[in-house]
């Protein structure tokens, strides 16, 4: 993991990055002696900053005063050292979404899972190496709903001389899809947890923090992507929205998908794509040599089957061939599917296949040691006797996996595991099959109350796991984007209705299934994934809708050390935060 005193060695670079992180990569290339496998230093000052959108000015947490936060650029094999100083009144921690963090859960970031949060006035250094990964990932806060403002791209370039398995694009551009709330999002979720009802929804969607011209008082805050005719651009798409899967398209243009969650895929071309919170996608946009218009509209809009309220707006940005004063609506928006078009989502999702080349093989576990079935969905908690609740039939909304709603511990699970100090912290009895089987996608049971506990599934090192994630119709069937920390997994099968353990596995794709870190469980359906538990530590798995995460839709895997020295967890850093 490299020495921590290296922070002083890199002082010159760190100072530059803190002042102007977007110049960081250019600086790194200019500094002598920095090649692949070197160390990149960044400083994150978490501070309150006044930001105005939709004619509303509010003070929001930012990294280095930037919203969205700074772009981090490294190469496969490089070490990344990020010193975080927390200058706000909230606890905070940062997750490097999709980074495998081999043997090094201390750098993973989810509060109370791999670390205690960084308290106000405190600091922590995230020190990790990018091993065997290249592509688009991202970073975000992993405490309460703070990631609504605290997020940015993590670009991992291939090793020097390696290149891409497709023609090199003329230019690469990160585009982060987000959500803007006029209200204070911490107040929004705290009120919802208090009343038991669904939280208020966002006021706008954003492109790189800008809502654009479809919203009132927002045309000046429009993202413009300037392009030249007859060129190929790689858009590094990241869905950093809190609670919404999103359709995306560009009027009169097609997009060729070449990568998902920092894993190359067999290229396929679409007019519209759908991307879930937590997911990343690299797409190639080839511009025509003679565009018919100087500008075209890009747009995002939600995909959902929720029975609750949602932000049913469309955000727009501009693909600009020549400087233009044209503002929307004169630019026609791309034709995006209806908000509940599950068919369009299914047709898109079916396209994903691993590249599975000699250089990038799909190493799917062929034999399976452990088969698990997890139901994923909503539920309820009884209303306390001294209050009135706004959830279903006077209850409080909850969410669970196998009817267990995750109870946040008071100390970090990874520390408890490392010290073998489990009593009063966690139970190793997470149910590996549904405790009360029912017709999962049919009529829900009368009793929808959930259990609560800090439960984990223990796994022996190198166990091959097949996990079926089964959606339920309790409080309405909807899609759930599930994210697994510390691992990528192969998506070997999916379907609608209830998983059939006899008839569905013969239809699995074990040849070239897509490898991801975040997958949406289809609405009223199931998805099957496989992974090899070769990364020791405690790894969170959760719904990447933050509202469902707040309601308890998460669990953790406890992967034990292997027998060899390089199969054991690294010791904790000396500056690990205290709870």
From TrEMBL:
GO terms for molecular function: copper ion binding; hydroquinone:oxygen oxidoreductase activity. Keywords: Apoplast, Copper, Lignin degradation, Metal-binding, Oxidoreductase, Repeat, Secreted, Signal. One of its GO terms (biological process) is lignin catabolic process. The keyword Nucleotide-binding does not apply. Its EC number is 1.10.3.2. Pfam families: Cu-oxidase, Cu-oxidase_2, Cu-oxidase_3. Binds 4 Cu cations per monomer. Its cofactor is Cu cation. Residues 45-159, 172-322, 430-561 form the Plastocyanin-like domain. It is an enzyme of class 1 (oxidoreductase). GO terms for cellular component: apoplast. It catalyses: 4 hydroquinone + O2 = 4 benzosemiquinone + 2 H2O. Its main location: secreted. Residues 1-37 form the signal peptide. It is found in: Secreted, Extracellular space, Apoplast. Lignin degradation and detoxification of lignin-derived products. Belongs to the multicopper oxidase family. This is Laccase. It comes from Sorghum bicolor (Sorghum). The lineage of its organism: Eukaryota, Viridiplantae, Streptophyta, Embryophyta, Tracheophyta.
């Amino acid at each position: 993991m490299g020495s921590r005193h290296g922070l002083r060695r890199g002082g010159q670079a760190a100072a530059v990055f803190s002042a102007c992180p977007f110049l960081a990569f250019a600086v790194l290339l200019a500094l002598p002696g920095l090649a692949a496998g070197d160390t990149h230093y960044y400083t994150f000052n978490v501070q309150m900053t006044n930001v105005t959108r939709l004619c509303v000015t509010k003070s929001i947490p930012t990294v280095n005063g930037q919203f969205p936060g700074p772009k981090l650029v490294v190469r496969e094999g490089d070490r990344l050292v990020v010193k975080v100083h927390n200058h706000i009144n909230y606890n905070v921690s940062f997750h490097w979404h999709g980074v495998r963090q081999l043997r090094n859960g201390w750098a993973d970031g989810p509060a109370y899972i791999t670390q205690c949060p960084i308290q106000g006035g405190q600091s922590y250094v995230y020190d990790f190496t990018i091993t065997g990964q290249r592509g688009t990932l991202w970073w975000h806060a992993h405490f309460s709903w703070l990631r609504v403002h605290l997020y940015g791209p993590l670009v991992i370039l291939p090793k020097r001389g390696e290149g891409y398995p497709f023609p090199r694009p003329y230019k690469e551009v990160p585009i982060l899809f987000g959500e803007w709330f006029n209200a204070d999002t911490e107040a929004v979720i705290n009120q919802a947890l208090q009343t038991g009802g669904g939280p208020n929804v966002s006021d706008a969607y954003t492109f790189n923090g800008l809502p654009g011209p479809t919203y009132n008082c927002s045309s000046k805050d429009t993202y413009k992507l300037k392009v030249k005719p007859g060129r190929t651009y790689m858009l590094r798409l990241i869905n950093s929205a809190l609670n919404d899967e999103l359709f995306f398209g560009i009027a009169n243009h097609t997009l060729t998908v070449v990568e998902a969650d920092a894993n190359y895929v067999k290229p396929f071309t679409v007019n519209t794509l759908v991307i879930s919170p937590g997911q990343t996608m690299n797409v190639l946009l080839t511009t025509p040599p003679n565009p018919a218009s100087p500008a075209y509209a890009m747009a995002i809009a939600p995909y959902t089957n929720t029975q609750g309220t949602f932000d049913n707006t469309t955000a727009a940005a501009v693909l600009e061939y020549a400087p233009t004063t044209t503002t929307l609506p004169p630019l026609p928006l791309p034709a995006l599917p209806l908000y509940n078009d599950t068919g369009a989502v299914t047709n898109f999702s079916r396209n994903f296949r691993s590249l599975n080349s000699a250089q990038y093989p799909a190493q799917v576990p062929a034999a399976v040691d452990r088969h698990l079935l997890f139901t994923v969905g909503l539920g309820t908690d009884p209303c306390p006797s001294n209050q009135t609740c706004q959830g279903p039939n006077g209850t409080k909304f909850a969410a669970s996996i196998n009817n267990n709603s995750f109870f946040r511990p008071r100390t970090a699970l990874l520390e408890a595991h490392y010290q073998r100090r489990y009593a009063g912290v966690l139970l190793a009895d997470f149910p590996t099959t549904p405790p009360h089987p029912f017709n999962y996608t049919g009529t829900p049971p009368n009793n929808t109350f959930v259990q609560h506990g800090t439960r984990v599934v223990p796994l022996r090192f190198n166990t091959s796991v097949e996990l079926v994630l089964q959606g339920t119709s309790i409080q309405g069937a909807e899609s759930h984007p599930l994210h697994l920390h510390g691992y990528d997994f192969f998506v070997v099968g999916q379907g609608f209705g209830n998983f059939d353990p006899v008839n569905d596995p013969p239809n699995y794709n074990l040849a070239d299934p897509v490898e991801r870190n975040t997958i949406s469980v289809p609405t009223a359906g199931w998805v099957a994934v496989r992974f090899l538990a070769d990364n020791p530590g405690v790894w969170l798995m959760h719904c990447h809708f933050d509202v469902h995460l707040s309601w308890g839709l998460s669990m953790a895997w406890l992967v034990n050390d292997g027998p060899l020295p390089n199969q054991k967890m690294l010791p904790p850093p000396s500056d690990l935060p205290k709870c």
